[in-house]
Amino acid sequence: QIGEPLRMLVIDLAKEDETPAPHVFINPEILESADARSVYEEGCLSIPDYYAEVERPASVRVKYLDRDGTLQEMEAEGLMATCLQHEIDHLNGVLFIDHIS
Known about the structure:
- The structure is a single chain.
- With 101 residues, this protein is mainly beta.
- It has one domain (8-99): Peptide deformylase (Peptide Deformylase, Alpha-Beta Complex), CATH 3.90.45.
- The protein is 14% helix and 48% strand.
- It has a four-stranded antiparallel β-sheet with strand order 1-2-5-6, covered by helices on one side. Strands 3-4 form a two-stranded antiparallel ribbon.
- Strand 5 and strand 6 (71-77) form a beta hairpin.
- It is globular, with a radius of gyration of 14 Å.
- It starts with 7 loop residues before the first strand and ends in a 10-residue tail after the last helix.
- The model has no long low-confidence stretch (mean pLDDT 93).
């Protein structure tokens, strides 16, 4: 999506009036997904001006390297879980519209 062959993503869920808090994920991999599901409206720069509700696992466990190269694991739920799945899908060539039934 940025024209570089990297398996890296940055997620910042800080609101406009909050201090930015970017979280860097290098070589992220989903280790476990919950059976419970959640639905969020998703959009993407790859498909401008199109939004749709997408159902995904409500929580995931992800392993990744941080910006210092240290192996990390994160349990994510809610919006962070959705963002991680959306962005990791991108790294695997999958778009959110591929999840719409």
